[in-house]
Design brief:
Keywords: FAD, Flavoprotein, Membrane, Mitochondrion, Mitochondrion outer membrane, Oxidoreductase. By secondary structure, this protein is an alpha/beta fold. It is about 35% helix and about 20% strand. The structure holds flavin-adenine dinucleotide (FAD).
């Protein structure tokens, strides 16, 4: 429905538009040939315009409704949309002109204030940041203290504590045979390492060559604890063996690598008893499981010898070729007029071999010679790694290894393997007091004389200098070269015997321990037969 007026306008418009072409057409048809040239230009233009109009009216515009409003003309949108190619050049402040507003009151004052540059010092820049960081750290610490439980031993400054169980993680487990395992343990927490930084050597658990020590491991379900002997060993991952198998290689902890005893890593050599409470628990642990350790517990301290405070033997390092020769021992002995460190004999069965390995592989290896009698069911029970170390120690003339296997009846330990004891080379006053109970008068006198001599020598140490070539011992390029020479020299019999193994084995070698009173018990067995006694035998 259209309003009538609009309709009319539309109609008149239509009519007028229709009339124009009609008029033009009639004009063009009626025009004579003379008048044509004069009006040619104009008539052409008119003709064009009228042609377009006449075509226009027949055009069908399907998209535009007749009812749609007429398009707006000259809205300026095209002008706005046109791309402005003129570059924008900002005017400097003094070139800008403004006519819109008058100046604000006190404009000069305001401008001066704004213009005055802020003095930015290091403090104004960093203090807010530092304060924010402090607040965040404090909030974090508060959250940590309130929201997290501190585990036992987590904040300890010691790797091991005799009164508190510390958590260790099983990082490697090597099954040697059906019963024997070598297990690598690494402390779960590392807080203790900070206290080791300044004083690593004295804090090291491997720096003693004068004692056997153990740790206690807990079975948490039953709260039963048993002792085990840690060894300064770790597994170096992924070494190719001679069979071209990729197998972790057993290595000795090197004190010179500044890793604080390899981050507290240690190994235990464990025998599994089928109905054993703790050994079963330990050997059932998988990699990543936790064991709780308490210690260290000194099992036995070797008799004092002044040479130990003056000299350290080079550490045994994985291979004989890597081990340094001990060129200074003879010199120190001669210069200070000190006797040799006593030789030891060690009777061990099964895992009882662990204490002597601890003594020999530690960072200050024992200075005397050690005769080892190792008894086992089969030769494979010790495992390739530990066997290799004992073999090399033998080659370096630090030990003499004699193996006794049940599978080889001829090799079984007997009276032929036990020598008579020798008198110790050096006896401290305290040891003499203890020994006096077991020695006769002549022996006590002999020891007393030795002791006086050595005490005088020890007092003179600071003033002594190496005066002549006679004071110096032989010089060797390698430890193997030294071993070839010393191996030919006869060894003085041991003055101390240590026995370690299962109950039956201890009974056989040295007589039973007095378990009721937790005492050593009288020395009997093979050692008792050869006149060894409680002054020179210790049952571990
Ligand atoms: C100072 C010290 C250091 C030690 N170091 C090590 C070590 O490095 N590695 C290691 O494996 N062990 C070591 N032991 C032995 C260890 O402490 C345990 O005695 C052993 O693991 C058995 O404990 P269990 O709880 O498994 O057996 P238990 O529950 O005590 O015994 C269960 C059964 O197992 C058998 N059994 C247990 N112990 C022996 C044994 N010694 N001989 C024969 N049969 C036994 C018996 O039949 C017994 O009835 C050490 C002991 C001492 C005192």
């Amino acid at each position: 429905m259209f309003p009538l007026r609009q309709l009319r306008v539309g109609r008149s418009h239509l009519t007028s538009r229709r009339l124009i072409p009609l008029r033009y057409n009639s004009n063009s048809s009626n025009n004579n040939k003379q008048s044509k040239p004069e009006d040619e230009e104009e008539s052409k233009e008119v003709s064009k315009k009228n042609d377009a109009d006449s075509i226009d009216q027949f055009k069908i515009k399907p998209s535009t409704s007749r009812a749609a409003p007429a398009p707006l003309e000259n809205t300026g949108i095209e002008q706005l949309m046109r791309k402005d190619t003129k570059p924008y050049i900002p005017k400097l402040k003094h070139q800008r002109l403004t006519h819109e507003y008058p100046d604000l009151p006190n404009a000069d004052e305001y401008t001066n204030m704004v213009k005055t540059p802020k003095t930015i010092t290091r403090w104004t820049r960093y203090v807010p940041k530092m304060l924010t960081a402090l607040v965040v750290a404090w909030c974090g610490y508060t959250y940590y203290v309130w929201m997290t439980d501190v585990e036992e031993g987590e904040e300890s400054t010691e790797l091991l504590d005799p009164d508190e169980f510390h958590k260790f993680i099983v990082t490697h487990k090597e099954q040697i045979d059906d019963e024997h395992y070598l297990i690598e343990l690494v402390p779960k927490f590392d807080h203790w390492q900070y206290s080791f930084m300044g004083n690593g050597e004295s804090k090291s658990v491997w720096n003693g060559s004068d004692r056997f020590w153990s740790v206690e491991i807990k079975q948490p379900d039953t709260n039963v604890v048993r002792s085990y002997t840690p060894l300064p060993l770790y597994f170096m991952k992924s070494e190719y063996t001679k069979n071209n198998l990729r197998k972790p290689l057993l290595k000795i902890i090197n004190p010179e690598a500044e890793e604080f005893d390899k981050g507290g890593t240690m190994c235990i050599y464990v025998k599994r008893y089928d109905n054993g409470e703790v050994s079963r628990y330990i050997t059932d642990r998988k990699i990543g499981d936790v064991l709780e350790l308490r210690g260290p517990r000194t099992e036995f301290k070797l008799p004092y010898h002044p040479l130990r405070t003056l000299h350290s033997r080079p550490i045994f390092r994985d291979l004989p070729s890597k081990t340094e020769p001990d060129n200074m021992l003879e010199t120190v002995k001669r210069v200070n007029n000190l006797p040799d460190v006593d030789n030891l004999v060690f009777y061990a069965a099964g895992t009882g071999i662990a204490p002597v390995l601890q003594l020999l592989l530690s960072q200050k290896p024992y200075l005397g010679h050690v005769a080892i009698h190792y008894s086992a069911k089969t030769p494979t029970e010790l495992g390739e790694g530990l066997q290799r170390f004992l073999f090399f120690l033998d080659k370096l003339d630090r030990v003499t290894l004699t193996c006794h296997y049940d599978t080889e009846p001829r090799s079984v330990l007997g009276a032929k393997d036990v020598l008579k004891p020798a008198l110790p080379n050096y006896v401290s006053p305290l040891s003499l007091e203890n020994k006096a109970k077991f020695l006769n008068e002549d022996e006590i006198k002999e020891l007393q004389e030795k002791m006086d001599l050595e005490n005088t020598a020890v007092l003179d140490i600071p003033d002594k200098l190496i005066q002549s070539a006679a004071d110096r011992g032989d010089y060797f390029e390698t430890a193997l070269e030294q071993a070839i020479k010393t191996a030919k020299m006869p060894k003085k019999p041991a003055s101390l015997a240590i026995v370690c193994g299962p109950e039956g084995y201890i009974d056989y070698v040295a007589g039973p321990k007095d378990l009721i009173r937790d005492e050593q018990g009288k020395v009997a067995g093979l050692l008792g037969d050869k006149k060894w006694d409680n002054s020179n035998v210790y049952k571990l």
